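Minutes, project check-in
Item: structure for the 219-residue chain
Input as provided by the requester:
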Amino acid sequence: MPSPGFFITFEGGEGSGKTTQIQRLAESLVPVIPAGSLVVTREPGGVPAAESIRDLLVNGDTEKWQPLTEAFLMSAARHEHVEQIIRPALMQNKLVISDRFTDSTIIYQGVVGGVASQHIDAMNKISCGDIAPDLTIILDMDSQTGLARAGSRGVGEDRFEAKGPAFHEKVRAGFIDLAHADTERCVIIDASRSADAIADDVLQLVLARLTAVGMIAHD
């Protein structure tokens, strides 16, 4: 059976503005959803065990891990994240918003990294069980512009950013193809515009979906 609650994931290339838009969305939703019913998290990470694995994945030389090893590490972190944070929150009928989830593994390690789709699917099934996003927002922008934005942050965690232009162009194309293959769940939003314009589109989309499932009341 599907879990109660509602699960939103944000996906996209490096520097596409996921963190900013998640923060903006959370701030906008606080007044309209029940108190204490919003959980904002990220991958890889979200819980201490998964954050430890995150450090292994996002720092160091670009070639330190084979794509299959990355997929195993991502899945291990995800299992802790799902069982400690996401599943309990959804079972309490909460709204969960995550910066990345299984689609990132499908694209980064699978489509671009070359790990066979059946292996990725099996890992996702093991790590998540029946947990899957209800809505995935894909922030799309030119990959080189996104990389420039990401580089300007200067906060480290740049292992994936350093994989080169061709890698990131493939990531962008992979997310677009994924969205076109699952139009009910995935929505592409043009992330090349102002943060305000993007935030407005995201909020209207999410309010419509939450209203449709009864998590917020009709006006």
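Outcome recorded: The chain has a mean pLDDT of 93.
No further action items on this chain.
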